[in-house]
Amino acid sequence: MKKSIVILVVIGLLLVVGVVIKQNSDDISDLYRPAFSIPDLNNVPHKMSEWDGKVVLINFWASWCPPCIKEIPDLVKLKKIFEKQEFEIIGIAVDSTENINKFLINNPVNYTVLVGEQVSFSLMKKLSNTTGSLPFSVLIDRSGNIKFKHLGVISIDQIKHEVSGLL
What we know:
With about 170 residues, the chain is α/β, with parallel strands linked by helices. The chain has a single domain (about 30-165), classed as Glutaredoxin (3-Layer(aba) Sandwich), CATH 3.40.30. Helices cover about 40% and strands about 20% of the residues. It is built from five helices and seven strands; from the N terminus they run H-E-E-E-H-E-H-E-H-E-E-H. It has a five-stranded mixed β-sheet with strand order 5-4-3-6-7. The longest helix is centred in the first third of the chain and has 24 residues, at about 1-25. About 30% of the residues are buried.
């Protein structure tokens, strides 16, 4: 009985690892950023086209997601590193405005935060995050082409390298 449980746990872990690997390795060579309109914390809608001509990192996150919270300080550092260049970070929260505002009181950020709520899931699916897992990051070049995507916590060194290559 114990052996069967161990085998089932190992199979389950292998399936999860397989999904993460597939999510991070899908062919993105022909993927263009989808259009969207999502409100900010003041309920002002923003379209993706506002950032045309810039390198953009879209980061899907939530205030209740420990891995998301872990990577936020690195995103703040990243924004500071490239603040004088044509680079933007857009945090799309899979959360309510109330929860985000409470979170940001003690965890301020220096980049745009949009309130995606349930719309976020359909947008993530368009970007081939079919599981809706968080955090999820997508790097878009100046022409709107998706050049990099990552499911899970991203290291600042990894994303810094990717951004530098597009600026």
